[in-house]
Amino acid sequence: MPASGDSGTDVFRADDVAVWLDRRTVPANVRRDGELAGTTFGDRFRAGLDGGEFSAQEFVHRLLAEADRFRGQLAPAELMLLLLALVRVWGTSPADRASATSLRTAVRAVLDRDLAGHEQVAALAEVFGRQGPGTRAECAAVFDLLVDRYRSEFGRRAGGEFFTPKSVARTMARMLAVAAPRPRRLHDPFCRAGEALTAVLAELSASEARPRVTGTTPSSDALHLASMNLALHGAEDAVFRLGMEIEGPGGESPGPSGVDWIVTNPPFAQRLSTPEGQRTWRYGSPGSRGDFAWLQHVVDRLAPGGRAAVVMPEGAGFRGGQERRIREAMIEDGAVECVVALPAQLFSTTGIPVNIWILTRPELRRGEVFFIDGSALGSMAGQALRALSESDTAAIADVYAAWHRGAERTEPVPPGAVAVPSRALGLDELRDRDYALTPRSLTVPEHTLADPHVPERVLALRMERLESAAARLQGLSDELERFRAPWREAWSRTEPGENLPPARHQMRLGELADITVGPGGSRRDRADDTVRGVPMVRPAAVRGHRIVHDGVTWVPQDEAETLTRYRLRAGDLVMTRTGTLGRCALVTEAEEGWLFGTHLVRIRPCDPSYADYLLGFLERPEAQNWIIRRARGTAVVSVSSKDLYDLPVLLPSPAEQREIGRLLNTLDEQRHTHTELIAALDVYRAELADLLMCGRVALPAARQEVSTSDVDP
């Protein structure tokens, strides 16, 4: 919400703008020199305000590097909690920055225990003091990055209960923000690390009155994480308690006036420990399964006019028995307003697809339920994890807002926008469908095979995919053209056999990069789908100058903790060093924190700007031949890191290196786009063939022949 400026123009608080810009990550192909993978436009905005003196990404890298010194002294999870607590204190208690002693005392108070000694806190405090975050907003940005790291390292272990995926939390918050009025009380009955609550607060303007924030956490560590998270995001007075709200005779009462907004991601299919007779349920006893216990509990806690967003497994929308009877009662009573289908693989602890249920107090009943099918949205952010983009979230929120205003969206989707199927069903239709709440099937109207509209709609969606890929190709081609003009001019002035420019020189690869051979043990390069932990790149995954995510294996988390030396960072290169030698790939932000296997070597440039150039140089035939000539072995040949150290690298000026690297990266992107285009064309061909052969579409020549044959001689 803008505030009026002196001249009558709208002005916005800088921290609000930065938080809003944090929703978008700077794409790899437009990152500036020195910007790391994962940098957001919010980071860039803050850097512009403070002269570029602070980068949350760079600070987190420095902090983690310093923390590595203490990994043998503290358990990894406790070390991460210590870092998070330090950020919390640094951002909310400036007076405690005065000394390591006061900082340690404050951290002990936050965590209710002493995790580190004076030496450890003093060393970490020195990192904060040199170039640490100066404002609460900067501390919040650092905290969010550390939580992401915590989630990636411990999300598949017991700590998985702490986290809700950011994109899911953002989508729930955006849908609640459609409703009015703004909440006086915001609550999460199973608040994990507080991501859902902070996502809601991010949707509220700084000019609005802040709601009272409460929550219940499942464990003491989750309680500490949630408290720290909310404090840094502007809710220091948030109140949390330890426990399980749905257990007990009456649940935990949130107050006489109820709760305006509830946002929560409760555990799926939780087994209830409270006997059924000890609590009265609004729509019927849920038995021993907790899904419909949570749904009823949330409805009970809503104030008149209140709304809730609840994450549920897809099965809650169609399972039979007692759950079906409760679902029927909730629908007939008007408690279910909207159900959104989300794609699979959004959670690190389960691959099943999930839905978001928007619940209301029954007084707000509309006589229909709105369904949104977002199951085709999202993109892979790792080997087994998918994430919703900002445009995905906006598409869901926009179609929900249009229905909420009483007008389902009918206008065409703008070019480049994301389209999501949606449909409202009345009570009679839901009764006919046995009260199923399944957006993927209910957003498609019933039709016969002869109905031409459904195939045409599907075909239109395929055409949108083709046009999107074609537009991306055109953009990449334009980028290539920017490089071609200087080449032509330079080539026209170059005579065959002319000596290289004086500025071009040679250095050894080992002087430009750190070279590390993968960990020992051949089993580390064998595929294993029976465990989940940290992805490890195998040689089969090195294709097309990138890491293909279906060619990795998994290392159990406890084993991965012993292999931190072999972690990958965005900007690293990996190269096959045995068998088929010399295949190289660039590590992107999608592979941040992964491991690399035995038969690979990691090449970490001393200067990140070398990465794209070195990738291109190592793929040159001359460099490949140099590597092959130095390979040793009989049955299986390999090249050593010592030999690679001496590989001569031809270096133009730094400016030329950056330009060459950007060009080669653009070519790799264009190759990837061509692959996507071919896949889209295959789908388009199949759809078009079905339409033509079933008579739903007729070619112009065929129409003419039919018309002629109908004329009497």
List keywords for this structure.
24 strands; alpha/beta; globular; 9-stranded mixed sheet; 4-stranded antiparallel sheet; 713 residues
Please give the largest β-sheet. Answer: 9 strands, mixed
Spatial gap, N to C terminus: 74 Å
Unreliable stretches, pLDDT < 50, 5 or more residues? 250-256, 447-454, 522-531
Please tell me the overall pLDDT. 78
**Whole-number radius of gyration?**
29 Å
SS-based structural class? alpha/beta
Tally of individual helices: 23
- What sort of overall outline do the alpha carbons produce when their principal axes are compared? globular
Fraction of residues in helix: 40-55%
Number of strand elements: 24
Q: Beta-strand level of the residues, as a percent range?
A: 5-15%
Spatial strand sequence of the major β-sheet? 5-4-3-6-7-9-8-10-13
Overview of the structural elements:
The chain has 713 residues and is an alpha/beta fold. 41% of the residues lie in helices and 15% in strands. The strands form 7 sheets. A 9-stranded mixed beta sheet has the order 5-4-3-6-7-9-8-10-13. Strands 15-23-20-21 form a 4-stranded antiparallel beta sheet. Strands 19-16-22 form a 3-stranded mixed beta sheet. Strand 4, helix 10 (220-232) and strand 5 form a beta-alpha-beta unit. The radius of gyration is 29 Å and the shape is globular. The chain starts with a strand and ends with a helix. The model is unreliable at 250-256, 447-454 and 522-531 (pLDDT under 50).
